[in-house]
Amino acid sequence: MKENMLVMNKKNFLGTVCVAVALSAVVSACGDGTTRSAGWEFSPNMYEPLAFNPDQPNPNFKDNKTAQLPPTGSDPIGFVRFEYPNTTEGYTQAGLEVKSPLAMTDENLKQGEALFLTYCAVCHGKDGNGDGQLTKDRKVNDSRGERELEKFPPPPSFHRSAGAKSTRGTVMADLSDGQIFHTITYGYNAMGSHASQLTPDERWRVVMYVHELQKK
Amino acid sequence: MRNISSVLGRLAKSISVSLVLLFAVTTAAQAQDAANGAALFKANACQSCHTLGRNGVGPDLLGLSERREMGWIVKWIHNPQGMIDAGDPIALELKGKYPTVMTPFASLSESDIADMVAYLDAEKVKAEEKKNSPAAAGAAASSDANTMMIIGLVALFVVAIAVIFALNRVTKTLERVIANNQAAIAEAQARHEEAGESNTAKFAQAFLKNKKLVFFVVLMVVGLLGAAGWNTMWNVGVHQGYKPVQPIKFSHQIHAGVNQIECQYCHGGAFKSKNASIPSANVCMNCHNTVTASDHYDGQTSPEIAKLYRAVDWDQETRTYGTNTRPIEWVRIHNLPDFAYFNHSQHVVVAGVECQTCHGPIQDMEEVYQYSPLTMKWCVDCHKETEVNKDNAYYDQLIEAHEKLKKGEKMTAAMIGGLECGKCHY
């Protein structure tokens, strides 16, 4: 009789444990899996860097930033400066004098296309036709409901067949090496400067690809 | 005070809007032209350079029909550069004021342009109504509010003194009552305590007697603690699902999803370096010097974009940058432990891994969270399955070295990178 009782208790006990575990498992699956907290950390002295990350605040500098600008006037090794100022005169002069230092190769052109698709196509269109995604009707549906997004002013087409004129007077299909390079470097109208995103060499590859688009 | 004036302002605004509506109904034909003009104005993205009510990249167009003749407007829209070249005095004056020459819109017909001018006229009327009524009403309201506030403050002061006086009287009276009825109060207190004690005790007894209920409650507590413990312990050092609040409500859903801006446009570092890099604010300004989302904020700049303008000290009126910049303190989401080395360019350029493979459906995330666990097991699992992408120069030397070994040629440690600084000084 006593043995029986023990067996019964054991069964009950095991059953209860099972239920508790199942309940825990179900409850722990609640929520959408995201959290505002980074949770606990195991041995922070191994996890957290002693050195400062570039995006961390840093009390050792006056402006409390770790990422400091290089001293004014310093250039990386091998960097070629673009000496033409951000003025109409600079633009005209660059257009006449500056030529691409890169050889016209398939590889350069391919890289130019990839760079154009990444940095330019969103406004200028994949085909350089001035019909990029940002210039089209777009709608977003998010936590604030469905709404239309602001359109970016469409840039003129590069194609010769379109015959569009640049706002600085030149027919888009006739833009020279220096003019395109100057515009990428400083930006113009609604277009911002892309000098921080594209190195001079990358800019020249883009110029090479734009010349291809001008033939269309 | 601000509340009162803003309420009055809103009231006046709604009245003026209804006045404008009334006006619009009476001149239905004009309104139709204006509606067509409004659609054209938007379709050609005129508002991107011409902000109504202030000068932007281009001049403020309100009151255009008063300043310029129709023929001139049509000619200008069709070929602005041509007019400058031809030496038109107004065109030259504009060129002097605004460095950027307008994009030509040769496809717009004369009637289209007339409709757009009608729209601008309607907007001008609207703006003037607004200026006349709510501005004046607003000014009156604010001075009214001033006097009202002073009167209110005085009244409040008087009421406060009256209340203090009354409360003082009440306290004194109550003290007197207590002093008079000490015995009765003590008796009542004793009775009340007894009753309270027995109530709690009764409840506890009843609860403990109900074994099933006790069992159920204990089970629930164990279950919840188990779940909380499980989640906490399992996620020690694992930040999967970490979604911190960012200083600006930047939506990747809008930028990467709807706008289809390539990841590399902002995070170019992923292709060139160890870090994917958070874009500096000048990259934001490439588009946001124009995009203010004012459509959704009553003509005002979106408050989130305004934070960006504050950070880079951008003056919207003059379209220039100041010197009082402040960094945007984004919260880092993906935190690898310091002892683990990870290089983005190695994965993105050499291996050709898509951003989404590790970062999940970024283009659908309104608010970004850490998609992958970033645990060692996760890394190792992928490295076990992924075949080496030999389609780039990265492995050329490795393959060359193996060829040499196969042929039995002489090979020194230096030839396989034994002289690289980092081999010893890391």
Automatic annotation (TrEMBL), chain B:
Keywords: Heme, Iron, Membrane, Metal-binding, Signal, Transmembrane, Transmembrane helix. InterPro entries: Cyt_c-like_dom, Cyt_c-like_dom_sf, Cyt_c7-like, Multihaem_cyt_sf. Residues 1-31 form the signal peptide. Residues 32-124 form the Cytochrome c domain. The chain crosses the membrane at residues 148-167, 213-234. SUPFAM superfamilies: Cytochrome c, Multiheme cytochromes. Pfam families: Cytochrom_C (PF00034), Cytochrome_C7 (PF14522). PANTHER family: CYTOCHROME C7-LIKE DOMAIN-CONTAINING PROTEIN, LIPOPROTEIN CYTOCHROME C. This is Cytochrome c3 family protein. It comes from Sphingobacterium tenebrionis.
